[in-house]
Write a structure and sequence with these properties.
The protein is mainly β. The protein has two domains: 11-30 and 161-274, no CATH class; 31-160, no CATH class. It is 9% helix and 49% strand. The strands form two sheets. It has a 16-stranded mixed sheet that branches. A two-stranded antiparallel sheet has the order 2-10. Strand 4 and strand 5 (75-85) form a beta hairpin.
Length: 274
Amino acid sequence: MKPMKNQSLPDRLPAYTIVWKKEPPFAVECEELTGWFMVPRPGEKMMWGMYDLPSRKLDVAYHMEVTGPARVHGLDGVAIRARVLSSGNAPGEEDPMKDAVEASTGGQEEWTFIAQEKDGYTRFLSAEHTENGVRELTTFLDGEAFLNNWGFGEDNCGTPVHRERQGLITREGSRVTARVSSACMDVVGRCDVTLDGKKQDTVCIMDLGMYEEGMVSEQYLDRDGHTVLWRRFNRDDWAMERYGKKWSELLPENERIVINGETYVHWYDCLCLR
């Protein structure tokens, strides 16, 4: 593994294995913000990166740091600086990862968020970036302009910190069954994740369409509630009008899982470093 210049994230996704165990999954307190892996608490900082599959190259990375207390519309939180780190591996025009990277960065080199953890939930309160020399700020009161990108849960209630198995989703190998017809999230099992030779005891949380219909994620959390590995899958026909092919055709080498009889294809992974 060759580290990025002046950084510690590898420029290639290290080899990993996931071994499912029979032991019951443990409950965990995960204080991370959905999609950005950051804990909104003074003194926190971390890096995370997106890795293309099957090439395993690092497409984009982020350095995130809490810079101090902040308040928006009378709600207290912390300010978070999120800086994009160039990996030198920017996806080409025909690479499906180009859309994923641009959706993540919003085409910006830096964001400032205000976020909070309160009442057992973590949530974004505002997002700010500079575009064409103009600072643009949106908050949770700006409706869809904010909520479609940064909101989570009813009335932006956020993501629950406490995670334990609810029995909404069961998994046996590559076959997954959801017991509800709507989008849902649940702890589905306990795994040993061995990443670059280091084995960690984790629980796996699956998100079935909570953020976006046709999208599924696996989030492997250690006992401290930190993300060890995050994996995204797309329903085989997700965004066909945009890509013109099924994902099993676009990424024939990538892993597949079956959820309630429908095929989902592994798209990319995220790694976190604290």
